Protein backbone atom coordinates (compact mmCIF):
# COMPACT_ATOMS: atom_id res chain seq x y z
CA UNK A 1 0.00 0.00 0.00
CA UNK A 2 1.41 3.37 -1.02
CA UNK A 3 2.19 6.17 1.44
CA UNK A 4 -0.41 8.39 -0.28
CA UNK A 5 -3.06 5.74 0.25
CA UNK A 6 -2.12 5.31 3.93
CA UNK A 7 -2.16 9.08 4.50
CA UNK A 8 -5.59 9.40 2.83
CA UNK A 9 -7.10 6.67 5.01
CA UNK A 10 -5.61 8.30 8.13
CA UNK A 11 -7.17 11.67 7.25
CA UNK A 12 -10.58 10.04 6.67
CA UNK A 13 -10.34 8.19 9.99
CA UNK A 14 -9.33 11.37 11.83
CA UNK A 15 -12.18 13.37 10.30
CA UNK A 16 -14.68 10.67 11.24
CA UNK A 17 -13.36 10.53 14.80
CA UNK A 18 -13.63 14.29 15.24
CA UNK A 19 -17.18 14.32 13.85
CA UNK A 20 -18.23 11.53 16.20
CA UNK A 21 -16.66 13.34 19.17
CA UNK A 22 -18.27 16.70 18.27
CA UNK A 23 -21.73 15.30 17.72
CA UNK A 24 -22.66 12.74 20.36
CA UNK A 25 -26.32 12.29 19.42
CA UNK A 26 -27.43 13.17 22.92
CA UNK A 27 -30.64 15.00 21.91
CA UNK A 28 -33.81 12.95 22.11
CA UNK A 29 -36.73 14.69 20.42
CA UNK A 30 -39.96 13.98 22.27
CA UNK A 31 -42.21 16.15 20.09
CA UNK A 32 -42.91 16.85 17.29
CA UNK A 33 -41.86 14.12 14.85
CA UNK A 34 -39.90 15.21 11.81
CA UNK A 35 -42.03 16.22 8.81
CA UNK A 36 -45.07 17.22 10.86
CA UNK A 37 -47.80 19.45 9.40
CA UNK A 38 -48.97 22.39 11.54
CA UNK A 39 -51.90 24.78 11.04
CA UNK A 40 -50.85 27.74 13.20
CA UNK A 41 -47.77 29.90 13.60
CA UNK A 42 -46.39 28.52 16.88
CA UNK A 43 -44.78 25.14 17.36
CA UNK A 44 -44.21 23.56 20.78
CA UNK A 45 -41.03 21.49 21.00
CA UNK A 46 -40.05 19.03 23.73
CA UNK A 47 -36.66 17.32 23.95
CA UNK A 48 -34.61 15.35 26.44
CA UNK A 49 -30.89 15.75 27.15
CA UNK A 50 -28.64 14.16 29.79
CA UNK A 51 -28.10 16.15 32.95
CA UNK A 52 -25.32 18.76 32.66
CA UNK A 53 -24.76 17.94 28.99
CA UNK A 54 -25.29 21.54 27.82
CA UNK A 55 -25.41 25.01 29.31
CA UNK A 56 -27.18 26.65 26.35
CA UNK A 57 -29.65 25.61 23.66
CA UNK A 58 -29.99 27.75 20.55
CA UNK A 59 -32.85 27.26 18.11
CA UNK A 60 -32.75 28.56 14.55
CA UNK A 61 -35.78 28.62 12.27
CA UNK A 62 -34.89 28.88 8.60
CA UNK A 63 -31.33 29.89 9.60
CA UNK A 64 -32.50 32.72 11.86
CA UNK A 65 -32.03 32.48 15.61
CA UNK A 66 -35.41 32.51 17.37
CA UNK A 67 -34.93 30.99 20.83
CA UNK A 68 -32.22 30.67 23.48
CA UNK A 69 -32.80 28.36 26.42
CA UNK A 70 -30.66 27.70 29.49
CA UNK A 71 -31.53 24.09 30.39
CA UNK A 72 -32.28 23.53 34.06
CA UNK A 73 -33.50 19.93 33.81
CA UNK A 74 -33.32 16.94 31.51
CA UNK A 75 -36.59 17.62 29.69
CA UNK A 76 -36.63 21.00 27.93
CA UNK A 77 -39.71 22.61 26.35
CA UNK A 78 -40.02 25.78 24.25
CA UNK A 79 -42.02 27.28 21.39
CA UNK A 80 -40.83 28.65 18.07
CA UNK A 81 -42.62 30.72 15.42
CA UNK A 82 -43.37 29.18 12.03
CA UNK A 83 -43.61 30.78 8.60
CA UNK A 84 -45.98 29.33 6.03
CA UNK A 85 -44.39 26.52 4.05
CA UNK A 86 -41.47 24.32 5.08
CA UNK A 87 -39.55 25.42 8.18
CA UNK A 88 -36.08 24.06 8.94
CA UNK A 89 -35.64 23.99 12.72
CA UNK A 90 -32.06 23.55 13.89
CA UNK A 91 -31.63 22.77 17.60
CA UNK A 92 -28.05 23.39 18.77
CA UNK A 93 -26.61 22.26 22.13
CA UNK A 94 -23.64 24.19 23.46
CA UNK A 95 -21.38 23.34 26.39
CA UNK A 96 -18.61 25.76 27.41
CA UNK A 97 -18.94 27.59 24.09
CA UNK A 98 -18.49 24.39 22.07
CA UNK A 99 -21.00 22.52 19.95
CA UNK A 100 -22.13 19.38 21.74
CA UNK A 101 -24.91 18.13 19.46
CA UNK A 102 -27.58 19.35 17.10
CA UNK A 103 -30.82 18.05 15.65
CA UNK A 104 -32.75 19.25 12.62
CA UNK A 105 -36.50 19.12 12.05
CA UNK A 106 -38.57 19.95 8.97
CA UNK A 107 -42.04 21.28 9.81
CA UNK A 108 -44.64 22.35 7.25
CA UNK A 109 -47.07 25.11 8.17
CA UNK A 110 -50.15 24.73 6.01
CA UNK A 111 -52.27 27.70 4.89
CA UNK A 112 -55.59 27.96 3.09
CA UNK A 113 -54.78 31.58 2.26
CA UNK A 114 -51.83 30.81 0.01
CA UNK A 115 -52.62 28.18 -2.61
CA UNK A 116 -49.08 26.78 -2.87
CA UNK A 117 -49.13 25.99 0.86
CA UNK A 118 -52.51 24.26 1.04
CA UNK A 119 -51.12 20.80 0.36
CA UNK A 120 -48.12 19.45 2.30
CA UNK A 121 -45.14 18.07 0.40
CA UNK A 122 -44.79 14.31 0.05
CA UNK A 123 -43.85 12.63 3.31
CA UNK A 124 -45.31 15.32 5.60
CA UNK A 125 -48.33 14.52 7.77
CA UNK A 126 -50.23 15.78 10.79
CA UNK A 127 -49.41 14.43 14.22
CA UNK A 128 -52.04 14.85 16.93
CA UNK A 129 -50.26 15.20 20.26
CA UNK A 130 -53.25 14.40 22.48
CA UNK A 131 -54.07 11.20 20.60
CA UNK A 132 -51.00 9.52 22.12
CA UNK A 133 -49.59 8.93 25.58
CA UNK A 134 -46.59 11.13 26.33
CA UNK A 135 -45.30 9.84 29.64
CA UNK A 136 -42.23 12.08 29.62
CA UNK A 137 -44.54 15.13 29.46
CA UNK A 138 -46.96 13.81 32.07
CA UNK A 139 -44.18 13.98 34.68
CA UNK A 140 -44.53 17.78 34.73
CA UNK A 141 -47.81 18.54 32.95
CA UNK A 142 -51.45 17.61 33.35
CA UNK A 143 -52.39 16.38 29.88
CA UNK A 144 -56.14 16.17 30.39
CA UNK A 145 -58.19 19.36 30.83
CA UNK A 146 -60.41 19.90 33.84
CA UNK A 147 -63.49 21.98 34.51
CA UNK A 148 -61.19 24.94 35.13
CA UNK A 149 -60.69 24.96 31.34
CA UNK A 150 -64.40 25.53 30.72
CA UNK A 151 -65.51 28.97 31.86
CA UNK A 152 -68.39 31.28 31.12
CA UNK A 153 -67.45 33.84 28.46
CA UNK A 154 -69.86 36.76 28.28
CA UNK A 155 -69.30 38.43 24.92
CA UNK A 156 -71.27 41.54 25.99
CA UNK A 157 -69.19 42.33 29.08
CA UNK A 158 -65.89 40.92 27.88
CA UNK A 159 -64.44 44.31 26.88
CA UNK A 160 -64.79 45.47 30.49
CA UNK A 161 -63.51 42.17 31.88
CA UNK A 162 -60.44 42.54 29.68
CA UNK A 163 -59.33 45.54 31.73
CA UNK A 164 -59.14 43.67 35.03
CA UNK A 165 -55.99 42.31 36.66
CA UNK A 166 -57.26 38.73 36.80
CA UNK A 167 -55.45 37.37 33.75
CA UNK A 168 -52.59 35.69 35.62
CA UNK A 169 -54.94 34.13 38.16
CA UNK A 170 -57.15 32.71 35.41
CA UNK A 171 -54.15 31.36 33.50
CA UNK A 172 -52.72 29.69 36.58
CA UNK A 173 -55.90 27.64 37.01
CA UNK A 174 -55.76 26.29 33.45
CA UNK A 175 -54.22 22.89 32.76
CA UNK A 176 -53.56 24.03 29.16
CA UNK A 177 -51.60 27.17 30.08
CA UNK A 178 -48.21 25.66 30.92
CA UNK A 179 -47.75 24.23 27.40
CA UNK A 180 -49.74 26.70 25.32
CA UNK A 181 -49.16 30.02 27.08
CA UNK A 182 -47.43 31.66 24.11
CA UNK A 183 -50.56 31.50 21.95
CA UNK A 184 -51.93 34.50 23.88
CA UNK A 185 -48.73 36.57 23.81
CA UNK A 186 -50.16 39.08 21.32
CA UNK A 187 -51.91 42.47 21.68
CA UNK A 188 -55.37 41.19 20.69
CA UNK A 189 -56.58 38.09 22.51
CA UNK A 190 -59.85 36.31 21.74
CA UNK A 191 -62.24 35.99 24.70
CA UNK A 192 -62.10 32.23 25.36
CA UNK A 193 -58.30 32.23 25.04
CA UNK A 194 -57.98 35.26 27.32
CA UNK A 195 -59.73 33.46 30.18
CA UNK A 196 -58.28 30.07 29.16
CA UNK A 197 -61.66 28.51 28.54
CA UNK A 198 -60.22 26.13 25.98
CA UNK A 199 -63.12 23.67 26.20
CA UNK A 200 -65.47 26.39 24.97
CA UNK A 201 -64.20 25.52 21.49
CA UNK A 202 -62.06 22.35 21.76
CA UNK A 203 -64.17 19.24 22.22
CA UNK A 204 -62.64 16.27 24.10
CA UNK A 205 -65.18 13.94 22.43
CA UNK A 206 -64.09 14.68 18.87
CA UNK A 207 -61.68 12.76 16.65
CA UNK A 208 -58.91 13.84 16.65
CA UNK A 209 -59.25 14.68 20.33
CA UNK A 210 -59.74 18.37 21.22
CA UNK A 211 -60.30 19.43 17.63
CA UNK A 212 -62.88 22.13 16.87
CA UNK A 213 -66.19 21.28 15.26
CA UNK A 214 -66.47 22.13 11.57
CA UNK A 215 -67.59 24.34 10.01
CA UNK A 216 -66.12 26.97 12.35
CA UNK A 217 -69.48 28.69 12.71
CA UNK A 218 -70.69 25.80 14.90
CA UNK A 219 -68.27 26.95 17.58
CA UNK A 220 -68.15 30.68 16.81
CA UNK A 221 -71.91 31.24 16.72
CA UNK A 222 -72.34 29.64 20.12
CA UNK A 223 -71.09 33.01 21.45
CA UNK A 224 -71.55 35.40 18.53
CA UNK A 225 -75.33 35.10 18.47
CA UNK A 226 -75.96 38.71 17.48
CA UNK A 227 -73.72 38.40 14.43
CA UNK A 228 -75.34 35.10 13.46
CA UNK A 229 -78.80 36.62 13.52
CA UNK A 230 -77.77 39.80 11.69
CA UNK A 231 -75.56 38.31 8.97
CA UNK A 232 -77.82 35.41 8.09
CA UNK A 233 -80.55 37.89 7.16
CA UNK A 234 -78.38 39.58 4.54
CA UNK A 235 -78.70 39.06 0.79
CA UNK A 236 -75.03 38.68 -0.11
CA UNK A 237 -72.36 36.64 1.67
CA UNK A 238 -68.57 36.69 1.57
CA UNK A 239 -67.09 33.27 0.69
CA UNK A 240 -65.35 32.44 4.00
CA UNK A 241 -68.48 33.35 5.99
CA UNK A 242 -70.77 31.49 3.58
CA UNK A 243 -68.72 28.31 4.01
CA UNK A 244 -68.35 28.75 7.78
CA UNK A 245 -64.58 29.13 7.54
CA UNK A 246 -64.02 31.84 10.17
CA UNK A 247 -60.44 30.74 10.91
CA UNK A 248 -59.44 31.48 7.33
CA UNK A 249 -59.28 35.18 8.30
CA UNK A 250 -59.39 35.20 12.11
CA UNK A 251 -56.91 33.61 14.49
CA UNK A 252 -59.09 31.90 17.13
CA UNK A 253 -56.56 32.54 19.91
CA UNK A 254 -54.74 35.86 19.49
CA UNK A 255 -53.20 38.14 16.89
CA UNK A 256 -51.08 41.20 16.20
CA UNK A 257 -54.09 42.69 14.40
CA UNK A 258 -57.52 44.03 15.47
CA UNK A 259 -60.40 41.56 15.21
CA UNK A 260 -57.78 38.78 15.56
CA UNK A 261 -57.10 38.96 11.82
CA UNK A 262 -54.31 36.72 10.57
CA UNK A 263 -52.88 39.63 8.56
CA UNK A 264 -53.60 43.38 8.41
CA UNK A 265 -56.86 43.91 6.52
CA UNK A 266 -55.49 44.98 3.13
CA UNK A 267 -52.89 42.20 3.00
CA UNK A 268 -55.43 39.65 4.15
CA UNK A 269 -57.89 40.56 1.38
CA UNK A 270 -55.17 40.45 -1.26
CA UNK A 271 -54.29 36.90 -0.23
CA UNK A 272 -57.32 35.91 -2.30
CA UNK A 273 -58.18 39.05 -4.30
CA UNK A 274 -54.67 39.68 -5.58
CA UNK A 275 -55.90 41.53 -8.68
CA UNK A 276 -57.66 44.21 -6.62
CA UNK A 277 -54.62 45.77 -4.97
CA UNK A 278 -54.01 48.37 -7.68
CA UNK A 279 -57.48 49.88 -7.26
CA UNK A 280 -58.16 49.73 -11.02
CA UNK A 281 -61.44 47.94 -10.35
CA UNK A 282 -62.73 51.01 -8.46
CA UNK A 283 -62.49 53.54 -11.28
CA UNK A 284 -62.80 51.23 -14.29
CA UNK A 285 -65.54 52.53 -16.56
CA UNK A 286 -65.77 55.90 -14.84
CA UNK A 287 -62.46 57.75 -15.30
CA UNK A 288 -59.26 57.23 -17.24
CA UNK A 289 -56.79 57.38 -14.37
CA UNK A 290 -54.76 54.25 -13.82
CA UNK A 291 -55.68 53.47 -10.22
CA UNK A 292 -57.37 54.45 -6.98
CA UNK A 293 -55.72 54.04 -3.54
CA UNK A 294 -56.85 50.97 -1.62
CA UNK A 295 -54.64 51.42 1.47
CA UNK A 296 -52.03 53.71 2.98
CA UNK A 297 -54.44 56.68 3.17
CA UNK A 298 -56.84 57.85 5.90
CA UNK A 299 -60.35 56.42 5.60
CA UNK A 300 -62.58 59.43 4.76
CA UNK A 301 -65.63 58.09 6.60
CA UNK A 302 -63.92 56.27 9.47
CA UNK A 303 -62.03 58.80 11.53
CA UNK A 304 -58.67 57.63 12.81
CA UNK A 305 -58.60 54.51 10.66
CA UNK A 306 -56.73 53.58 7.51
CA UNK A 307 -58.36 53.16 4.12
CA UNK A 308 -58.67 49.44 3.37
CA UNK A 309 -60.93 47.12 1.42
CA UNK A 310 -63.26 47.10 4.43
CA UNK A 311 -63.84 50.84 3.98
CA UNK A 312 -66.20 49.97 1.12
CA UNK A 313 -66.85 46.22 1.44
CA UNK A 314 -68.42 44.31 4.33
CA UNK A 315 -66.16 41.35 5.20
CA UNK A 316 -68.99 39.02 6.22
CA UNK A 317 -72.35 39.86 4.65
CA UNK A 318 -74.26 42.75 3.12
CA UNK A 319 -77.62 43.70 1.69
CA UNK A 320 -75.93 45.44 -1.23
CA UNK A 321 -74.15 44.15 -4.37
CA UNK A 322 -70.41 43.44 -4.17
CA UNK A 323 -70.75 43.43 -0.38
CA UNK A 324 -70.84 47.22 -0.29
CA UNK A 325 -71.15 48.71 3.17
CA UNK A 326 -73.43 51.50 1.90
CA UNK A 327 -76.96 51.52 0.51
CA UNK A 328 -76.11 52.54 -3.05
CA UNK A 329 -77.38 51.44 -6.42
CA UNK A 330 -74.15 51.59 -8.38
CA UNK A 331 -70.42 52.26 -8.13
CA UNK A 332 -70.74 55.93 -8.97
CA UNK A 333 -73.10 56.47 -6.02
CA UNK A 334 -70.57 54.65 -3.85
CA UNK A 335 -67.84 57.10 -4.97
CA UNK A 336 -70.01 60.03 -3.93
CA UNK A 337 -70.04 58.80 -0.33
CA UNK A 338 -66.47 60.12 -0.04
CA UNK A 339 -66.11 62.46 -3.01
CA UNK A 340 -68.72 65.05 -2.06
CA UNK A 341 -68.80 68.35 -3.95
CA UNK A 342 -69.17 71.24 -1.57
Overview in brief:
This protein has 342 residues and is of the alpha+beta class. It has three domains: 109 residues, Immunoglobulins (Immunoglobulin-like, Sandwich); 102 residues, no CATH class; 63 residues, no CATH class.
CATH superfamily placement of the largest domain = Immunoglobulins
CATH third-level topology of the largest domain? Immunoglobulin-like
Question: How is the largest sheet built, in terms of strand order?
Answer: 5-4-7-8-2-9
Number of domains: 3
What does this entry look like structurally?
The chain folds into 3 domains: 24-132, Immunoglobulin-like; 147-248, no CATH class; 273-335, no CATH class. The chain is built from 12 helices and 13 strands. The protein has helices spanning 3-22, 135-138, 158-161, 167-172, 177-180, 191-194, 217-220, 225-231, 239-242, 265-270, 280-283, 331-335, and strands at residues 28-31, 36-38, 42-48, 56-61, 64-69, 75-81, 85-95, 98-109, 125-126, 188-189, 236-237, 254-255, 317-318. The strands form 4 sheets. Strands 5-4-7-8-2-9 form a 6-stranded mixed β-sheet, with no helix packed on it. Strand 7 and strand 8 (98-109) form a beta hairpin. It is globular and about 85 Å long.
